[in-house]
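Lab notebook, bench 4. The sequencing result for the construct came back, and we need a structural model before the next group meeting so we can plan mutations. Quick request posted to the team channel:

Model the 3D structure of this chain.
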Amino acid sequence: MINCQRCDSTRVVSLAAHCNDLCVVTYAGKHSEGYVPSDLGVGGGDDVEIDVCLNCGQLQGTWPRPVTNTERKAHGDVTSGRTLFLQKQKSVLENNPDVVAEVKRLATQDNAVFAIAGYLVENSFNDPERVAAGIIAVQRMKLPIVAEAVLDKFYDWDQYQFLERVVDYDEFKDYAEDLEMDQIIAAGA
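Done. Here's the predicted structure in token form:
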């Protein structure tokens, strides 16, 4: 049993929900779908987890939160790192037009995740840039859940860290860029 951090009541309820990549987050009029953002203080991945005091309504946890990736994305996140990241993605796509074309074709199938992952394993597995090109192509088709599911299929691969750096901007950013964006957002708040 935990006590409320505001009123010390023991009337604290814990809620947990498993949303299977179907979390919808709205901030500043912008919507995103997929995993629960882990930096909001309400869980992460597939799970929403919150503790709420039934006496005073206080959401338990550490507040205020540092500026989150959700906020950064809503505000355009136009740091130099973001520009370099997009240039790297463009280069990966341009260097692998055959992979991009085939993945776009496979993305229209009912079993898109398995078809794309299978194609990438058979035709690109020894070249992480080719695998990344396929995943990026799916992202650019505005199919983020399919892209994330294909990326997850390579989780145990020794080149997975490379894939995350090239495919997922959140993995690419460094601390200095986070601070820069925090200052931009704080100035506009």
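The two ends are 37 Å apart (CA to CA).
Will bring this to the meeting.
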